[in-house]
Amino acid sequence: MRVPDWWSIEVMDVEDGTVHTATGWRDAYGQVLTESLITNGASSWRWFEHSWGVVLEVSFAEEESWDAWLDLPGTQATLDAVPDPVRGLLVHRGHGGASGSYVPRRPGSAPRADSVALPEPLVP
């Protein structure tokens, strides 16, 4: 049995002060997308709401099914209707959303050969 692949559609809010939000887009087009996913063989999907917008995670058993669904005129029309289709839309493989703020790792101490005790020489 094959593990299904996940893809994400991330829609960001517009920052120019308009009333168009990613949540409003989801409210307007979510049912159409869900119906389309059901009729085109999606094995699972779920919506996530973030402070910056919304994410639709979709799972299909085959990559070709994802490609076919994404190429549907109805799917393309809903993606064209996002608040900012140029800078506010990400479509990619894998789970979406933020993984938290970036915190760089602190460099650890460099490995050093002189920090390990050497075995004592054998004395006959």
From TrEMBL:
Residues 93-124 are annotated as: Disordered. It comes from the Bacteria. This is Uncharacterized protein. It comes from Actinacidiphila paucisporea.
